[in-house]
Every structure is written in structure tokens, then in C-alpha cells.
Design brief:
heterotrimer, A alpha+beta, B alpha+beta, C alpha+beta, A: Aminopeptidase, Elongation Factor Tu (Ef-tu), domain 3, C: alpha+beta, 2 domains, 10 helices, 17 strands, globular
Chain lengths: 328, 354, 347
């Protein structure tokens, strides 16, 4: 699993520029599904045919990043965020553009107060000293992702972009484990989740599943001085009850809980106030699609050192496998 | 049916946003008395259908959401306390020292508590209390509480229904059981009126949690015209006059970008002819009601809105004038039955571009 | 085209009240002999081009403008209002407006500076403290002219000034409407729908439903966009510059431009020597956001005419930017089949 996670998390794929990561995922699953295609917005859709219910599992391929907006006279790159990037987490990080050029994220030195830190006071340095030199590598509109390695330590995966490459890994693992299926399963690797759940809605509109489950990461409440939240790392798959966008449909939520109990899969319940995942846009598509979520608890979300528990990931795979094979 | 009896019955029902499943049957039973057909859809919208007498009639959808605001359990604290978050726009000013029901494996009574005032600094006292500062005291031993209540269980806020002087009533859930009551009364009236239009009366879900019911039912029904019945703010001292409406002086009808101008004008004209009092409720953009979602459903739906003024919204002391509920029912039933209801030339939906 | 734009900016069409603008455009396309329809929400959809089957393109420009809506009449006959669409409300004090179908003139009032306390002077006026004065004696008098729900638009006549500059209200997005009215006259080798949308300023509402009806493969949105090339703004905070050609948006808060379309427009501009610029900030959004996620997804791109002081009665554009916007879109669309025709929609 760690090798798969490392490869997925290390592949370039910010929102709107998912071609490279899509290519990697496509390679991993081609030949293992009955249908495999990319839709207009770039969602990768893999279908296992069956005669039962049509179930959609969605994990987003895109990651957060930064976009070059302006090149200074002296070669520095001004940038803005793609998705929920924290200025604090970005500071001092390396970023990498699609063509491999790396840059350092720095800030204007006369800035005194940390609270005044925002992207308009920050810039990327790729080591050039003129606009012309920089423009040989980077133009406005080019997007970079954060750069950080992937390690496994004490039963945890630590990496950038586990949000939501770990979800993608779960889907790929599931595809590998399944042979014949009774239900029809659409595994959807969605685009543009980080900028407003845009891919999942259009994919669901085309697929029109009976049920849908978003497979994404969720925050935990188990670190020093964090906001109260009952999710903990290593305590099992998180069954989503509610997030900032969606109240899970009883059909999905109850089934997940029942299956976790029946097959003795460790699980916990997720109620969060803010933020939303792909379920939010699937839920309201085409007259409403009963949706819910199974989440992988993740610390330090949207940082270069997101952390998940390997056991939780296994439990998520088990629970989803039971869900898509269930015939009631 | 007496409006106050009906409303009291409706207000007692617990249908917290996202957790309407258990309540849908009771609404279905009430609608069923007056409809040709009634059903509950996947999302627990309750749909009552009355067939029109002409095949040239329009398809008219009348919606009133039946979900209510509430709380949801997010975690446990030692000694029988629960932490909660909101389901819908809860006013925390109206939560301190209230009674609640936690809907776990069985219903658990609780009171809402917070750090006592004498332990708060002067500054803290000046600030509005946050939901994260509050907890539910169930008084149960921890083991038993965990056994009975799970994270994610919904919580309803208890409050009684009272009849007041001057035809008023107060209590919880009047937002928007008033609208549901108006739907029922309108159905009752439609039973005795010959109407050409096909009428779908829908008690919708999850209005308070993102207009989910309006989105799903308008997509599925695909009506020509939709009438939304919801509450608006009643007149309160100190409140902005432009966004509040006098109780008992007629039902406010929505005007603004969210509402179809021609159909709204027809509605107002009809009210005028029938001597039904109306006011105008101006909304510069998103009116915060289902109208906003329905208008852009499918290829676009002509929406009008009829409001019932209500004071102290989202508290357990919501106050309305029952006469306004009757007025809304009278207007909506006449409108739904009316031959005058038509989409003008401008609204003509014939795709003559093909 | 510039004459059309001037006529368009003289018409009032606050979001939700676009009828007059639509009428004007309708008359024009009727003259061109084009099929058209108006949908429920009020979008005007015009059909042009050949039905070749392979490619369906949607052009979108919105008819509506930001403005005010009357929501209360005070006892002394003043009109209270709310803002329709997003704009800087500090600009309002002392503006001229015209209200309702009969265009009743009014001014936006606030108590004179002499009468303001120190604290009031130091803070921006809140919208709720402002009102429109039409000179009515009292409420009864005001009600003879005004009803609640009437829209008020800024009163601002178009003026040419400086070098090739035009000042007017509502350049966002009558500029786009003017471009579309030119483009529908062309011969197109594919199915093309020009959508004049409503209610963009209050949440991209018209485009939401228009896109569902048209169900295009590709959509090009033509917009007025903000232009911050004014003193005391440093380079990287300037989104676009006036007079530097149409602005291509790679990303904003509502949509990420389709990369194939973006490259195609870029190379067209270079090949045809049409000046263009990148919109260098990622703020704002437009109809492309809703069109992109319509149905099972649409490839979108937005081409914008830079406008200074956008969303105010005194927005300004460069007439060559307008001309070049039209040229770029026209040239890029004519070669579109080379990029997309025969190409499988999905790989």
C-alpha cells in the first residue's frame, strides 16, 4: 500500500490540471474494469458491470496548489491559491510546476505580524533574476503543487496530498480485490473537488447512480489544543453523518453502520460543521441521489505532512467492499 | 379543519432537518385526506397530487418545507453531558436554559447548560454565547448515555404551543408548519373547487440544510409554476421596517429577481379581485427560501412566493397570527385553481428555436 | 459595434428586470433573421450557425447590471433600498438614479456632512442609513410614482473621453452583449447559440438554466472584468490593464478554464497578432462557473473586456479592447473545428 500511496501522492495533479495523475490511475486500473473513460471535465470513470443497484464511489484526484499570477521585473513570481491553501502552511515550502521547475515560497520581509500574512504579501522564487528568465519556465496561469516526500512510520502514512490520493488508493485497492460484482459499481476519480466539488456533480449527473459514497479524508480531534471533534486517528473508518454541505441519506448511513457492525469493522461517526466533500454535489444532482461518505481520518489537512493511519485505511477498504457487495 | 388544531398537531411533529423520515408518514396521512394520490419520495418529501379537469391545464407545484431546525450530537463529556452542533440556523441566544429531546435509541430528555455566569468575566458576559460553549445535560450515567445516544443523533428543542389573544399563536416549529398548514387548508378548499390545473402539494425536507427537498422535488415534478409558502419576519420593535411585515395585515408576496414577474403580477391581481389582502416582500437577491433553488431547476421554473409573517424566528417562541395562515391558504388555492394562471408570451416555454 | 454598445448602456436592466435590454437585443436579432427564444427566467437564446452535428458552442454574455431595489417607503416619502448584486456601497451617497418603468429620477441622500457626528464622519455610511429622495412630499405622494420592488439603476450617460475611452454604466456586461450581437452575424460552421443571460450579478442564475437548455460541448463567456491599473496598486495586484487587449482567465473563483481551449485562444491571438493579456488575479467569477458544471460538464473559457471602476456608474473601457475581444473570439471560434471536430469528446 505504501508504494501505491507514495506514487499517487507524488504525482502532479492540482485542481483543473489532473491529466498526469489521471494517467497514473488509469494505468493502475486498466484491464481490471469493464469500462474506463474520461468525461468532459476530466473525471476518470471506471465501471464494473452488474445487474443490481448502481453504486457510485467518488474519490477526488485533485490536490490543492498555487497558481502564478504575475511575474515581477526581477523574476519573482506572485501567486494565488487553488483550493484551501493556508498561507502559514505554505511558508518556507517548496512547490513544483508541471514542467518540474521548483520554487521556494517566501514572504515580504517587512511583514511584522503573522496575522497579516496573506498571499498578496508572498512570492515564489525559482532562482532567476529577471522576468524574461522566469518566463522561460513559468507563465501566469501555471500551477504548482507542494513538494514533500511520503513515509510510513509507526503505522501511519505521512505525506502531502493524502487528501485525497489516499481515497484514490482505496478505490484502486478495491478494484483490485473485486472479481464478479452483483451491483453495478462506478468508481469515479473526480476533478476539482478542492475548488468547489465541481467534478463529482457532473459525473453523477451522467451516471445517475442509486446510491453514492464519497471517499475522502476528514479532520480529527485528537491533537494538542485542537477544536473538539470526536474523530481519532486509528479508531477506524469514519462514517459520515453530517458535514458542512450534506446530511447523509439514511439509506446510505444506516447501511454503512449496519455492515460495520455485522462484519466487525472498526468505525467511528463523523459530524462536522464546516467543509464538505463530493457527497455535497452528488446529493443534489438530478433530482437527488442518496449520498453519504466514508472518510479516512487525517491530521494536519492541507499541509505537506498530512497523516493517516494505515489501519484506518484497511478498515475503509473493508467497509466499502462490504457496502458495494451488499445486495439488500 | 380548525386552523389552530391543525397547526398544533403539526408543530408537535419532530422533523429535524435531515431526519424527516420518521415524520413523513404523519404528514402523508394528513395530505392523504384531500388528495387523489399521495406518496413519499427517496428524500422523504411528501407529495400530494390533485388531478386537474383539463388536459390543457398547467402543472402547479406548491411547496412548504416541513423540516425544523435542531441540534446534532457531536460528542460526549464526562458525567452525562453531550456536545452538539447545529442542524440549520439555530439562534444561540435562544438556546440557553432550554429543554430538549435527544432522539437516540429512545428519546432522552435534556436541558441545555453552559458555564455559569458568575464564572464568566465581564467581557465574556457581553458576548453572545457560542454553540461550542453549550452542552446538553442528560443526567444519565456515562455508560447508559453511550448505550442510548450515538454521535450524529438529532436533538429537537422542546416548546409548547400556546393560543394567544387577538387570534395569535406561539410556539416552536411555526417556521414552517404554518406553511404546511396553509397547504393542508388549501387542499381542503381545492376539494370543493373545480380546477383545470394539475396540482402537486409538497411538504419538502431539508430547507434549513440547503434547500435539498426543493431541489429534488422540483427536478422530479418539473412544474410549469411553483408557489412557495414560507414564513417571513413579522414586525418587531427596532427591526428594519423594509424586511419585516405587520401581522394580520395580509400575506406578503415576494417581489425581486427570484420571482417571476408576470406570474407574481397575476397572483397580486387575483388577490385584488378576490379581496384577499396582500403586502409586498421585496428581496434583492436570494430570499433565503426554496424559491431560489426552484427558479433555476431544470430549464428554469416560474416561481412565486406567499409568506406568513412570523416574529422571533428560529426560537421556541415563534409567533404568528392564525388569520395569515388562512389568508395564505385562500390565496394559494384560488391561484392554483384559477384559469387565469398562465405563462405570458414572454414566459412561453415553446422551444421554437429548434 | 460601439454604437450598439452605447445604445445598450442607455438601457436599464438591473438583475431581475432585464426586459428592456432583452427587447433591444431581440429587435436586433430579428432584423438579422435569426431564430430566438426567451426562457422562463428571461434568458434570450439566439441560434446561429450550421447544424453540423459535431460541435455545439454556446456564447454567453449577461444582460443584467448591478443596481438597487426599493424595499420600503418612509412616512416622509423617502425610499429605502437594498443592493442588487455586489458592489462597493460607499459609492452610493449622492448618486443619481432612475427608478421603475417610468424612470422616475432620484438622488441617494444621507444627512449632510455638517450634521454628522465625528464618529459618523470617520466611518463609511451603512446601506441601511441611506435613502433615495425623489422629492415626494410624503409616503402617499411617493406611492403615486413608486411601488415596492421597483428597481433603481444608476443614471449615467455614455461619454467618450481620453484616448479611445468610453465611460458608461453597465459596461459589465453590455460590452459582452455588443460583442455577441456582432458575432451572431457571422457564418459559423457549427451549431452556435448566443445566450444573453439574466441575473449574473446575483449569482450566475440565468446561465445556470440556459446551459442546461443548450447543453453545449463548449462555452465561451464574454465578460467585463475588473481592471485595477490605477495609482497605488502594485503590479501583482493588478488583474488586467486597460488598452492591452482582451483578458483570458485561466482561473477564477468559479471556474478553471479548459486547458485545450485556453491554449487555442492563446495561439490564435499570437497567430493573428491580436493583443491579449492574462487576467493576473484569480478573484471574481462569472457565468462560466455555472456553465462548466452543467449537465455532465462543459468545456469553458472566459474572454473579458477590461473595465475600470466596474460595477459603478462610471465604468470605463478602451474601444480597441472591445474590438479585439470580438476579433479574438471570432478567429478562435472559426478554427475551433480544427481542434475539436472529429476529436472524440472523451478519450
Amino acid at each position: 500500500m505504501i508504494e501505491l500511496v507514495r506514487e499517487l501522492a507524488g504525482t502532479y495533479g492540482p485542481s483543473g490540471r489532473e491529466d498526469e495523475i489521471r494517467g497514473v490511475i488509469r494505468k493502475k486500473i486498466s484491464g481490471k474494469v469493464d469500462e474506463l473513460y474520461t468525461d468532459t471535465l476530466g473525471n476518470l470513470i471506471a465501471v464494473k458491470k452488474g445487474n443490481g443497484k448502481r453504486i457510485m464511489l467518488a474519490a477526488h484526484m485533485d490536490e490543492i496548489g498555487v497558481v502564478a499570477t504575475y511575474i515581477e521585473e526581477n523574476g519573482f513570481i506572485r501567486f494565488s491559491n487553488i483550493g484551501g491553501v493556508s498561507p502559514v502552511f505554505s511558508l518556507g515550502q517548496r512547490v513544483r510546476f508541471a514542467n518540474g521547475v521548483c520554487g521556494c515560497v517566501c514572504y515580504e520581509e517587512k511583514l511584522k505580524e503573522p496575522k497579516d500574512l496573506n498571499f498578496s504579501k508572498m512570492f515564489i522564487d525559482i532562482g532567476t533574476n529577471s522576468r524574461e528568465r522566469t518566463m522561460e519556465y513559468v507563465s501566469p496561469g501555471d500551477i504548482a503543487v507542494f513538494e514533500a516526500g511520503t513515509i510510513e512510520q509507526n503505522g501511519r502514512y505521512i505525506s502531502k496530498a493524502l487528501d485525497d490520493r489516499i481515497g484514490c488508493a482505496v478505490l484502486i485497492e478495491l478494484i483490485g480485490q473485486l472479481n464478479e460484482v452483483k451491483n453495478e459499481i462506478a468508481f469515479v476519480f473526480t476533478v476539482q473537488e478542492e475548488v468547489g466539488l465541481r467534478g463529482a456533480g457532473t459525473a453523477a449527473y451522467a451516471i445517475k447512480p442509486d446510491l453514492a459514497v464519497a471517499v475522502d479524508v476528514t479532520n480529527t480531534g485528537d491533537t494538542p489544543g485542537c477544536n473538539p471533534l470526536s474523530i481519532e486517528l486509528g479508531k477506524g473508518a469514519a462514517v459520515m453523518i453530517k458535514d458542512g454541505r450534506t446530511i447523509s441519506h439514511p439509506l446510505v448511513k444506516n447501511k454503512l453502520i449496519d455492515l460495520a457492525k455485522r462484519f466487525d469493522i472498526q468505525y467511528q461517526l463523523e459530524v462536522i460543521e464546516k467543509g464538505g466533500n463530493d457527497a455535497g454535489s452528488i446529493h443534489t444532482t438530478a433530482g437527488g441521489i442518496p449520498s453519504g461518505g466514508v472518510s479516512i481520518p487525517c491530521r494536519y489537512m492541507h499541509s505537506p505532512c498530512e497523516m493517516v493511519d494505515a489501519g484506518d485505511v484497511k478498515n475503509v477498504v473493508k467497509l466499502l467492499k462490504a457496502f458495494i457487495q451488499s445486495e439488500d | 379543519m380548525r386552523t389552530d388544531t391543525l397547526l398544533e398537531q403539526l408543530c408537535k411533529i419532530n422533523a429535524i432537518a435531515g431526519f424527516e423520515a420518521s415524520a413523513s408518514n404523519e404528514i402523508k396521512e394528513i395530505f392523504g385526506r384531500y388528495c387523489d394520490k399521495v406518496w413519499v419520495d427517496t428524500f422523504y418529501n411528501v407529495i400530494g397530487y390533485k388531478k386537474g379537469s383539463s388536459k390543457n391545464g398547467k402543472k402547479i407545484m406548491i411547496t412548504a418545507h416541513y423540516d425544523q431546525i435542531g441540534l446534532i450530537v457531536t460528542g460526549y463529556e464526562k458525567n452525562g453531558f453531550l456536545r452538539v452542533s447545529n442542524l440549520g440556523g439555530v439562534d444561540t441566544k435562544a438556546l440557553l436554559a432550554r429543554e430538549v429531546t435527544v432522539h437516540g435509541k429512545k428519546d432522552v430528555f435534556g436541558v441545555i447548560g453552559a458555564k455559569p455566569p458568575h464564572l464568566l468575566s465581564g467581557d465574556e458576559m457581553k458576548k453572545n454565547v457560542k454553540l461550542t460553549d453549550l452542552f446538553i445535560d442528560t443526567g444519565l450515567p456515562d455508560e447508559e448515555l453511550k448505550e442510548t445516544v450515538a454521535v450524529g443523533d438529532p436533538v429537537s428543542i422542546n416548546s409548547q404551543f400556546v393560543r394567544m389573544v387577538n387570534g395569535c399563536a406561539a410556539g416552536r416549529n411555526l417556521d414552517n408548519r404554518c406553511g404546511v398548514a396553509a397547504c393542508v387548508l388549501a387542499l381542503e378548499k381545492l376539494k370543493n373547487i373545480e380546477h383545470e390545473n394539475d396540482v402537486y402539494v409538497i411538504a419538502t425536507v431539508q430547507e434549513e440544510a440547503g434547500l435539498i427537498g426543493a431541489i429534488s422535488s422540483s427536478y422530479n415534478i418539473e412544474p410549469d409554476i411553483a408557489v412557495v409558502i414560507d414564513v417571513c419576519h413579522g414586525d418587531m420593535p427596532e427591526a428594519d421596517k423594509a424586511s419585516t411585515f405587520t401581522l394580520g395585515k395580509g400575506v406578503p408576496v415576494g417581489v425581486g429577481p427570484a420571482f417571476n414577474k408576470n406570474v407574481t403580477q397575476q397572483l397580486l391581481k387575483l388577490a385584488d379581485q378576490e379581496g384577499i389582502p396582500t403586502q409586498l416582500c421585496v428581496e434583492a437577491g436570494d430570499p433565503g427560501t426554496e424559491a431560489w433553488a426552484i427558479q433555476v431547476s431544470g430549464m428554469g421554473i416560474a416561481v412565486v412566493e406567499v409568506c406568513i409573517p412570523l416574529r422571533y424566528m428560529h426560537t421556541g417562541a415563534e409567533l404568528v397570527n392564525l388569520e395569515d395562515v388562512d389568508t395564505a391558504a385562500a390565496l394559494v388555492s384560488k391561484f392554483a385553481a384559477g384559469r387565469t394562471v398562465r405563462l405570458s408570451k414572454e414566459d412561453a416555454d415553446d422551444t421554437d428555436t429548434d | 459595434m460601439i454604437r450598439t454598445l452605447i445604445e445598450l448602456t442607455k438601457i436599464d436592466g438591473v438583475s431581475g428586470d432585464e426586459e428592456q435590454v432583452r427587447k433591444y437585443i431581440e429587435e436586433r436579432v430579428e432584423k438579422y433573421g435569426l431564430e430566438h427564444m426567451t426562457d422562463t427566467i428571461g434568458n434570450l437564446i439566439v441560434r446561429a450557425g450550421e447544424n453540423s452535428g459535431n460541435l455545439k458552442v454556446m456564447l454567453a454574455a449577461h444582460m443584467d447590471e448591478v443596481g438597487l431595489i426599493i424595499n420600503h417607503i418612509t412616512d416622509d416619502g423617502k425610499l429605502k433600498f437594498a443592493a442588487v448584486g455586489g458592489f462597493d456601497t460607499r459609492i452610493l451617497t449622492g448618486q443619481h438614479v432612475r427608478i421603475g418603468d417610468s424612470k422616475i429620477p432620484g438622488v441617494i441622500g444621507y444627512k449632510s456632512i455638517h450634521l454628522q457626528e465625528k464618529k459618523e464622519r470617520e466611518s463609511a455610511v451603512k446601506l441601511k442609513d441611506l435613502y433615495i429622495d425623489i422629492g415626494a412630499k410624503d409616503r402617499e405622494d411617493a406611492e403615486k410614482y413608486i411601488k415596492l420592488g421597483d428597481f433603481a439603476a444608476f443614471s449615467s450617460e455614455p461619454v467618450f473621453f481620453g484616448k479611445n475611452r468610453l465611460k458608461a454604466k453597465a459596461l459589465d456586461d453590455r460590452a459582452g452583449c455588443a460583442v455577441l450581437l456582432e458575432l451572431v452575424k457571422e457564418k459559423w460552421p457549427f451549431e452556435l447559440y448566443a445566450c444573453f443571460t439574466v441575473q449574473e450579478e446575483v449569482g450566475l442564475r440565468g446561465a445556470t438554466v440556459a446551459a442546461k437548455r443548450v447543453a453545449p460541448d463548449i462555452a465561451v463567456v464574454i465578460e467585463g472584468t475588473t481592471c485595477a491599473d490605477v495609482p497605488e496598486v502594485s503590479g501583482h495586484e493588478i488583474s488586467t490593464e486597460i488598452g492591452k487587449g482582451p483578458a483570458l482567465t485561466f482561473i477564477d473563483r468559479t471556474a478553471i478554464a479548459d486547458s485545450i481551449l485556453l491554449r487555442h485562444f492563446e495561439s490564435t491571438a499570437k497567430k493573428e497578432s491580436i493583443p491579449f493579456q492574462w487576467k493576473q488575479t484569480v478573484s471574481g467569477g462569472n457565468d462560466a462557473g455555472k456553465i462548466q458544471v452543467s449537465g455532465s460538464g462543459v468545456r469553458v473559457i472566459a474572454v473579458s473586456v477590461p473595465c475600470r471602476y466596474i460595477h459603478s456608474p462610471v465604468s470605463v473601457l478602451d474601444i480597441y479592447d472591445l474590438e479585439n475581444t470580438k476579433e479574438l473570439v471570432k478567429k478562435a471560434l472559426l478554427t475551433l473545428p480544427l481542434v475539436f471536430d472529429g476529436r472524440q469528446k472523451n478519450d
